[in-house]
Amino acid sequence: MNPLFECKNLVKRYGDATVVNDVSFQIAPGECLGVIGPNGAGKTTTLRMCLGLSSPESGSVHAFGLQMPQDALAIKARLGVVSQFDTLDPDFTCAENLMVFGRYFGMKKAEIAQRIPQLLEFAALTHKADAKPGQLSGGMKRRLSLARALINNPDVLLLDEPTTGLDPQARHLMWERLQQLLQQGKSILLTTHFMDEAERLCDRLLVLDHGQKIAEGTPRDLITQHLEPDVVEVFGNGAMALLDSPLRSLAQRVETSGETVFFYTVDAAPLLQALNAHAGLRTLHRPANLEDLFLKLTGRQIREEG
Amino acid sequence: MHNAFRFWPVFMRNLLVWRKLAIPSLVANIAEPLMWLVAFGYGMGALVGEVSLDGQKVPYILFLASGSICMSAMNAATFEALYSAFSRMHVQKTWDGIMNAPVNLDDIVLAELLWAAFKSLFTVTAILGVMLALGISYSPKLLVAWPVLLGVGITFSCLALIFNALAKGYDFFTYYFTLFLTPMMFLSGIFFPLEQLPPIVRSVSQWLPLTNAVDLVRPLFMDQWPDQALRHALVLLVYATIGFWVALALTRKRFRG
Asked: Would you give the distance in Å from CA A114 to the centre of its chain?
């Protein structure tokens, strides 16, 4: 199938810093592509280039058989965007926010008015139709932003960290709505740094770090490709001493973070048995997940820039 | 929607917000200019009596009213294109939201320009209504003054949008007011005739946009046609065109990245 949306070899520099370096990806119809990466990895800049808001030094963005930036208006007419920070109009009610935004797409008043009740219902905001954004919770605002992005019935949604800052209930409701949209056949490009979100929603993942694509694939494939299937976390008194003990040879790979030792292994049984001999140590045995992958690929050091 | 009309829904957005606050904002917009007019016009007018203008005697209140309405057009347009546009652009990120829809940055800047000019015209219209009620002028040529004042609003909106594009915060606008608008107020023949100024200051004053606005509007209040109307209109047109062009270039630069 032809991709709906395609970026080829995008490069973006600010002065001497290359913030996006040769990033390419495609979104197929009905697909959810996740872009994951630490802060400052170039996720938002990539999204801005997709929208024609930032012009790449080189590379191209194509969508629906059209090209950025010359066809920006025609492309944006078929996109829905939820940016990282809400840009809702504080002076308008929820319903008015949708009405005013629909007008930017050249939609007729009657046509927008007809969509508003469905969209408010979709966002679970029917009871808040006449409330202003200032009266909404964080989760409600994000859902209103999502409803607003759907006003033009877009084919592709670009969502920049749609659940950052939300509590678990609000996140689950957002995920459920995004899954509904995928079932309706919409395509989604989603940036996130929540690995459970990526695992739950995304068909395919793109891992960015320092502006570069460092891995790409389905969540399952990425995990089997890059990681041992089992993880044993060990913490408590004397955990660090294990690093120099013969136990170490029972794991394929060992990492530490703070006072916790992570054993990555293809067979956890002998390791667990050996650990039984060490009283006072606490262990957690679990399958390897996306978070392990993310930390393996992008490292454990804190990224506080950007 | 034709691409040339992409600015229209942005203009409409501002109109819809304003409709909710129109009455209080109207009071705020016309109360201050009217206080100036009443206090200075009647208070000072009683002391000054008549002003001599190119050999004619003009009642001070008429002299002041015809000048201060240009100042009101300037102030209303400037406030909207500075403080209000900056709130939408920088604080509320309304512009960023709009650009996720099929609307270009240029369309938004154009909409802000027209919106500030519209608000200025609205203020001017209300003040003209009060001036008519006070019987300051019944000149039929006020009908011509009205579109001229719209032009004044457009010119000052364009200039203000330059400073909007450059601003890091609201404090920056104080410079524009203190360094440009306030001196211009005193050098444009609003409160006293330009003949009072030294020749060198007068030669600068001739090229100020507000002076040219006053030169166009004042005769119309006196039921006369302005001298050198074309020259004055051209000066305003040049300010507006260059202003808009620079504002657009600086705003694009601000959003590029």
From this structure: 31
